[in-house]
Design goal:
Length: about 140
């Protein structure tokens, strides 16, 4: 049964760690793109919008799903704990330890989601500002 606990640890927590790295790397890449984007080079607003919104969906998807992945790890950990209780009896110390370890998956899921959603909102705002600046430069109002 210990093997399954390790699988949850390395599987769920590993996946959350990878998703965290992807979200942070994508956010940094997008920020650098926004800093280097010259809106004067774009004659078509849709082309600029495509350029700016590229990969933003990855950050939003990670932020939206990380808590669920963490919750899945917690549910699996709790299921294994109940199985252990049924198979080997009630050992309070072991049960509390296993439940605490199961909850770390939810905590890590939240630790991945909160910055990802924050990065997404920050970058989305920057994207909108650049689009509005393009609109103002091209004499478009209310678009």
């Amino acid at each position: 049964m210990e093997h399954l606990h390790s699988l949850i640890d390395y599987g769920v927590l590993g996946l959350l760690l990878v998703l965290s790295v992807i979200a942070i790397a994508t956010a940094i890449e997008r920020w650098l793109v926004y800093r280097s984007t010259d809106i004067k080079q774009f004659t078509d607003r849709k082309e600029l919008e495509l350029h700016l919104s590229h990969k933003l969906h990855l950050i939003a998807t990670i932020g939206a799903n990380a808590p669920y992945i963490g919750l899945l790890g917690t549910v699996l950990g709790i299921m294994l704990t109940f199985y252990d209780i049924g198979a080997s009896g009630f050992d309070t110390t072991k049960i509390m330890t296993e439940l605490a370890l199961a909850l770390k998956a939810t905590a890590l899921g939240l630790l991945v989601a909160i910055p990802a959603i924050t990065f997404y909102n920050f970058l989305l705002r920057r994207c909108k500002v650049l689009l509005i600046q393009w609109d103002i430069r091209h004499g478009r109002k209310g678009i």
